[in-house]
Structure formats: C-alpha cells, structure tokens
Amino acid sequence: MNFWGKLAVAASVAWISSTAFALTDPTTRQGESLSALQTVEASDDARYVEHWIHEKGDDHGRPFVIVDKKAARIFVFGAGGKLLGASSTLLGQSRGDIPVPGAGAKDPSRLLPDERKTPAGRFESVPGRNLHGEPVVWVDYDTGIAIHRVRPGISQEKRDASLATEDPNNKRLSLGCVVVPETFFWSVVLPTLGNVRGTVYVLPEDGPVQAMFAEPKPDTTVATRRVNVSAR
C-alpha cells in the first residue's frame, strides 16, 4: 500500500491512544530542552510534530519547515532545530490532504477547483526556479507544489491583505503552493532552504496529526529534478 493509502486507513481509524501521544509537549519531560515554538504562536499539532522530528532525528541535521494547514502558519527551522522565523501563509483553495491524480501534470491555470490542494505529508525540499526564473523551494516537484513569495500581479493586493488577517479561512487562495509574504521569503525561507535540501512537514487537516507522524518515515531522497515546472 502506498503512502496515501496508509494515510487514508490511519485517518479513518482516528485513534489517539496514550501511546500515540507519548510524544507530547517536550516541556513536560524532565531533562529535555524547551520547544523552539514556546516563544511563538503555535498549535498543539505543530508542537507535537516539532517534538516528533527531534525524537526521531527525522530532520537528519538539515533545515526543516512545518506547515500547519489548520492554522495557516509556517515555521522555518535551521539545521539543529533552531526556529528562524514564523509567518502566516496562503494555501490551496481546495481543502484536503491527498492530491488529485494527474493534477500536477496540468497547466496551473487549468486546474479544477477541487485540484487546487496543498497535500499533506513529509517531503524532501529542493531549491530551484519556476518558469519565470524566480527562486522557489520545491516541496513536491511532481505535483508542482513549492514555497514561494507573493508574486506581483493582479492577485497581489488580495493575497497580501489575506496574509495580514488572523482568520485561517481567509488564506485559502493559492493553487496549491505554500505562499508567504515577500519579505519573509527573501529574509527567512530563501537563506535557509535556497541552496540546500531540507524537509517540509505539511500537517494534515483531515484526521489526527498523530496518524501521519506516529512512526519514523523512510528517507525518500529526491533525485535531481528538472526546473521547467510552474509553481502554483
């Protein structure tokens, strides 16, 4: 069974046992360092996954990102787990964690409403460029999902305004990409992930986060990829 099939089965069971929650708030466990998210606004799901990453050594000493879809927040960590920045973010217009088969092969402008999703999961990020030659951080190249800045254009004003609001429901505006404020992209995202590979953890919005991040996932290192894909 593939990853998405396993996720669907796990989510349908929807159990949260005391064993699954053994990776809870690290501040409650004697002898462990405080969470890097203690000083910022972060959900219990984000704190759980940060602790899961450290507990499993899943970041392998590389920079990593946590994208909390329910809260429409992004957290960028340097190698070693130091929090370098947090921001609101725009996400795919359609809710859901599993991408529609074939959507990644389409021209972004031809995506149907239900195909404009930000998939959940653990991804190996790759620095690259979009069709316009602009730097992006590829989250999942095959489905055209990247972290990028708010781009200039007719939607820029609306996207900037949505990022400034507190309601996560106002931030479902992208075609699937994780879109961040321009300043945050240039000052935090690109210096951290613009020249090295990292890991991006996109938290699910359907089902418990513990179902996805309960056991260590294998390191699926991404092969060298082409860059002639348009980020969404």
What's the short version?
By secondary structure, the chain is of the alpha/beta class.
How are the elements arranged and paired?
Elements: H1 3-13, H2 44-56, E1 64-68, E2 73-77, E3 83-88, E4 91-92, E5 121-129, E6 135-140, E7 145-149, H3 156-163, E8 172-174, E9 178-180, H4 182-193, E10 198-203, H5 209-212
Parallel strand pairs: 1-10, 4-8, 7-9
Antiparallel strand pairs: 1-2, 2-3, 5-6, 5-10, 6-7
Protein name: YkuD domain-containing protein
Keywords: Signal
Signal peptide: 1-22
Give an overview in words.
- 41% of the residues are buried.
- An 8-stranded mixed β-sheet has the order 3-2-1-10-5-6-7-9, with helices on both faces. It has a two-stranded parallel ribbon with strand order 4-8.
- It has one domain (3-13, 34-212): L,D-transpeptidase catalytic domain-like (Beta Barrel).
- The protein has helices spanning 3-13, 44-56, 156-163, 182-193, 209-212, and strands at residues 64-68, 73-77, 83-88, 91-92, 121-129, 135-140, 145-149, 172-174, 178-180, 198-203.
- With 232 residues, the protein is an alpha/beta fold.
- 21% of the residues lie in helices and 22% in strands.
- The protein is built from 5 helices and 10 strands, in the order ααβββββββαββαβα.
- This is YkuD domain-containing protein.
- Residues 1-22 form the signal peptide.
Q: Could you tell me the radius of gyration in angstroms?
A: 17 Å
CATH superfamily: L,D-transpeptidase catalytic domain-like
The number of domains is 1
Order of helices and strands: HHEEEEEEEHEEHEH
Task: State the helix count.
Answer: 5
- Briefly, what CATH class? Mainly Beta
Q: Give the tally of β-strands.
A: 10
- Overall 3D form: globular
Based on helices, strands and strand pairing, what is the structural class? Answer: alpha/beta
Which CATH-level-2 architecture? Beta Barrel
How much β-strand is present in the residues?
15-25%
Mean pLDDT metric: 79
CATH topology: L,D-transpeptidase catalytic domain-like
Uncertain runs with pLDDT below 50, 5 residues or more? Answer: 1-32, 220-228
With strands numbered from the N-terminus, the spatial order across the biggest sheet is 3-2-1-10-5-6-7-9
**Percent of residues in helical segments?**
10-25%
Distance between the termini: 28 Å
